[in-house]
Amino acid sequence: MRYILLFIWLLTLSVFAQQSIVIDGQFEDWQNVTTMVTDSAHDEHDTDWFGDGLPQPRPRKYSDVDILQVKFTHDQENLYGYVKASGIVGRTSSVANGQKAGRYYYIITIDVDNNDTTGYALQEGNYWPNSTGYDMNMEVEFYDGAFNTGHYINHEFMNEAELRAGRTDLYNYIIRLAPGTYDNYLQWVVFPDSSIVEVKDRGPVYQGIIEVAVSADGHEAEMKAPMWGFFWDENGEPIVKLGNTIDISFSLEGSGELSESAIEAGYNGNKSVWGSDTAEPIVGYYLQDYWTAVEETSPPIAEDFSLEQNYPNPFNPTTTIRYQLQTAGHVELAVFNALGRQVRTLFTGFQSSGTHRITWDGLDDNQKLLPSGVYFYRLQVDQFSRIRKMIFMQ
């Protein structure tokens, strides 16, 4: 009886955890999310205080960046953030209205390795309250009256030389966690086909895999960032994955042409009055794997084959895929790109029982070299199949 009750409890957790947030500007699906922080109203501040050598920021009237509440959750593949503000999230001045093109940032900064010696301290970016060890961001920029980019940021660099080396790693989907500073960072948009483009603030509009939606009244916003967009370390391990413990900090920041401080000064939407607000961090958030916990309580299913992780991974120029068959059968081993299109058939036919190894060289069925990126290989034995992920780097 005890084990049955445990299974039911785990199943309940799983069903709840798998109710993924829908990024649609409707917020009923956030009501049961309990990981949250409330923040005092009217505590917006300037964004120059630390650079000016002050011990804490100066107050600023800017309700659009005034955080009232934040929430955070996850599912098997994505991170989700929610923010509620006194004013309108994402509101900026616009050239179309005869004003300066304004900027606004919805920022979720993450200590991805639960280690304060890597990454940077928030105060270096003039954020308050300060906390340390932040490595990467999932972030949205609004610019000139509209959503501009949804991007990832890596802050693991102390100088220009490290930044250049990090850029080379980035295009190979590698992130090396190390001490960094706020001023040295890489910022990129990821697309569903696993391609990336490096971006700068106020750049061209790129809307990749990060999604954002704002409520009809503007006071609430939600963001979704797939975990795989944070990429992998030098050993091929995902930077963000289930089982990790992370710290999370939420900030809203804007150039403030439409802020109350700007209005009082009579700037008419044509002069920046920067302001921001940061909530207390969510510390020690565990990316719980509810799904595997339930699967492990289910009766084991006998398998006639197993599929191993390719090695090396990431790889260039070749990698080996190994699998075992308990009994002979019809086998198909194929490679798919991130869009799910089959690009290479590595083997199809009858195979005997035992261990088998097949090498892939990054070529498609037409013997053309495929681009760097995330690929999947699927082993199908009779009516059963298994899939694993791999990274090809040119």
Briefly characterize the structure.
The chain has 394 residues and is mainly β. 10% of the residues lie in helices and 35% in strands.
Features:
disordered N terminus; Immunoglobulin-like; 5-stranded antiparallel β-sheet; 8-stranded antiparallel β-sheet; 20 strands; single chain; 10% helix; mainly beta; 394 residues
What this model shows, in words?
The protein is mostly beta strands. It folds into 2 domains: 291 residues, no CATH class; 88 residues, Immunoglobulin-like (Sandwich). It is built from 4 helices and 20 strands. The strands form 4 sheets. Strands 4, 5, 6, 7, 8, 11, 12 and 13 form an 8-stranded antiparallel sheet that branches. Strand 19 and strand 20 form a beta hairpin. Helix 1 runs antiparallel to helix 4. It is elongated. The termini are far apart.
Global structural class: mainly beta
Helix and strand element order: HEEEEEEHEEEEEHEEHEEEEEEE
The number of domains is 2
Rg (CA only): 24 Å
